[in-house]
Write a structure and sequence with these properties.
Blueprint: H1 6-15, E1 19-21, H2 23-27, H3 29-32, H4 36-52, E2 58-65, E3 68-73
Length: about 80
C-alpha cells in the first residue's frame, strides 16, 4: 500500500481498543499527505484485505459516512 505498510496497519489495529474506526485513524499524517486518488486506492486495497482476512482483528461494517468506510476492531 502506498504511504504505509501492511505491517504498520496490523500493529495499529492491534493497539486499538475494540470498536469502530476509519482507515484514516490508522494512517494519520501519512494519509493526509497522499493525493485523493491514492487515498481511494489505499482504502480499496485495505477493505479488500480486510475482506480476505489479512487483518483478522478488523471487520468491514459495510457502512460509510462522510469520513469514509467504517470498520470495527474485534475484541
Amino acid at each position: 500500500m502506498s504511504g504505509f505498510e501492511s505491517k504498520d496497519l496490523t500493529k495499529a489495529i492491534e493497539t486499538r481498543k475494540p470498536g469502530p474506526f476509519y482507515l484514516s485513524d490508522l494512517c494519520g499524517a501519512d494519509r493526509d499527505d497522499m493525493q485523493i486518488a491514492d487515498r481511494v486506492k489505499a482504502c480499496n486495497v485495505f477493505l479488500r484485505h480486510v475482506g480476505e482476512g489479512r487483518y483478522p482483528m478488523a471487520e468491514d461494517t459495510g457502512q460509510k459516512d462522510k469520513h469514509g468506510h467504517i470498520c470495527v476492531r474485534r475484541a
